[in-house]
Amino acid sequence: MNALFKSLLTGLLLLPAVVFAHGASRLQVEETILINASPETVWAAIKDFDSLHKWHPAIEATEATGGNEKGATRVLTLKGGATINETLKKFDDASMTYMYQIDEISVVDQIEYEGHSFDVPAVPVSKYKSWVTVEAEGDRTKVTWLAKFFRAYTGKHHEPESLNDDTAITAISEFYKSGLQNLKSSVE
């Protein structure tokens, strides 16, 4: 019994080290909006992988290759000139859904933190994947934009504020909300 107690106590003492050793946690943001239009009308407005600049106010231009085929790529130019490179991973026209990932984000700043230099990307995330889904909800249409990602700083120590979880979540949430609100205004 004494050996069991010692083992249990040792395990509990080591638990914080194991928890903090893995680095950043995976984050998630999901935003939805209801639009007074048919699902087909809303889907037609957003389904083309090369059309984000047409309905999202933060996107200056979209340069894409590959249409809506798996593996298609696009470079988004944000207002201010920063870029985001993305790849279409799944596209289902019948189900009105697609999934894409960010491959590269341009650096917009560099900061010093605890004696180290860190690049600050235009969008403070890493390992980002996103799903866009359009579906009927009564006589309206629900658009869901879901992202799973990590913060920009993927180290195991205290992270700079501009690269932490809260900053990443806020950036994606605000980006999604402004895009969905603009989509609603333009479709209705």
Automatic annotation (TrEMBL):
CDD domains: PYR_PYL_RCAR_like (cd07821). Pfam families: Polyketide_cyc2. Keywords: Signal. It comes from Methylophaga frappieri (strain ATCC BAA-2434 / DSM 25690 / JAM7). Transmembrane segments: none annotated. This is MxaD gene product. Residues 1-21 form the signal peptide. It comes from the Bacteria.
